[in-house]
Amino acid sequence: MSDYYFDIETYSRTPEPDFSNDEIIAITYQQVDSRTGEVKGNLNILKSWDSSETEILTRFYRVFNPEDKWHFIPIGCNLSFDFTCLIHRWKKIDIQVSARKLLAEHPYIDIQPILIMFNRGSFRGATLEKFAGKRYSGSRVAEWYSKKEYHAIQDYIEDEVNTFLKLYRFLARTLPSIWFEFTKESGIAV
Q1: What whole-number distance in Å separates Cα of residue 51 and Cα of residue 65?
Q2: In the chain, how many domains are there?
Q3: What is the pLDDT of residues 117-137, one digit of tens each?
Q4: What is the pTM assigned to this prediction?
């Protein structure tokens, strides 16, 4: 079993996501220990500006290997967005992966619901900027991409990885003790 931090960056010409037309411009992954959040491998960033979207999608498909659900277990934030983008963009290059396979059958760890709980149940504002100290919103990526400021995107990605993993390590360390506290309080036998 291999657990990986995973995220994509997209470029949209419209204010709202358009999964069929938005380009995936970067795919980031790094092997981590899901129990601790400690890094176990190098940071990999597949960048379309170094090759093409088709190239990074094809390369990542081979790395991800969705047919073997235990080969690559994504860990991230708001992974349904990333999976939906991948499904649509893979389809454009004749790689067929069903939504059911990724969203319902493939194991993954998504911290988005935890951020919503941190935010007292509110979806608005349940972001890595607010709860992990990420410097910029992802909305800046399209602007940098349009201006060919690829170094800014690279810096953004590295900041996002670092802030995500810092929060994930904290969650991995503290959430089990919260659950144990709950079992004692509610009389659940462990």
Answers
A1: 21
A2: 1
A3: 999 999 999 999 888 888 888
A4: 0.93
